[in-house]
Design a protein that fits this description.
Helix content: 40-55%
Structural class: alpha+beta
Order of helices and strands: HEHHEHEEEHH
Strand content: 15-25%
Largest sheet: 5 strands, mixed
Number of strands: 5
Radius of gyration: 19 Å
Shape: globular
Length: about 200
């Protein structure tokens, strides 16, 4: 795993240059879109990359999930667009798809109507050739895609703190109840603010 981490760190300067360019292009694509709170891109942490690179295949535990993680891992460079209101997500999705051309799109949301939790639109886009920095082609097996998430302020307010807590294993009942309350409150606030924005538009 140390070799994977060192090799990834060697590529980081190029990936950071790409992230800066993609952030600029995304801001240009959404220049005329209202209600954007922020747009930001980042390069994956080298330790996180190495841990993900050696993950086993979900159906073949003795086989690595990725044959070539440097080529296959789509979130080596990733961006995030935060909108004010839920209805803005579809507008952002259309604008970004026209600009970059969507490869994959998935709306992540709780499994059932009585559940609350993580929500976000996830995209995978092809890295445009004109965005690749000088020296990109000289390094073997650089990624061909990048990841982009689109979510509202309230989705973000739920997702980031609970991700940062990094809890593992079984939680006690009180903690589960508290987390469920926060998730439900974020969900409700998101929809109420969206409804108010539509009424006042």
């Amino acid at each position: 795993m140390d070799d994977l981490q060192r090799e990834f760190e060697r590529r980081v300067p190029l990936l950071k240059e790409l992230a800066t360019t993609l952030e600029s292009k995304t801001k240009a694509a959404l220049e005329d879109v209202k209600h954007i709170d922020r747009i930001a891109f980042r390069v994956k942490d080298s330790k996180s990359f190495a841990l993900k690179a050696v993950k086993p295949h979900p159906f073949l535990p003795m086989t690595p999930k990725y044959d070539d993680p440097f080529l296959e891992l789509e979130d080596q460079v990733a961006g995030r667009v935060i909108t004010f209101f839920k209805d803005d997500i579809a507008i952002v999705r259309e604008a970004l798809s026209e600009w970059f051309g969507a490869v994959e799109h998935e709306t992540k949301e709780p499994a059932g109507p009585a559940e609350f939790g993580y929500e976000s639109d996830h995209f995978v886009f092809v890295i445009p050739d004109h965005c690749k920095p000088d020296g990109w082609a000289e390094v073997g097996n650089m990624p061909s895609t990048f990841e982009l998430q689109v979510r509202t302020i309230f989705m973000h307010a739920w997702a980031e703190p609970q991700h940062d807590l990094g809890y593992k294993g079984e939680l006690d009942g009180e903690t589960k109840r508290e987390l469920a309350w926060v998730a439900a409150s974020s969900w409700g606030a998101d929809r109420i603010m969206n409804d108010i924005a539509k009424r006042l538009a």
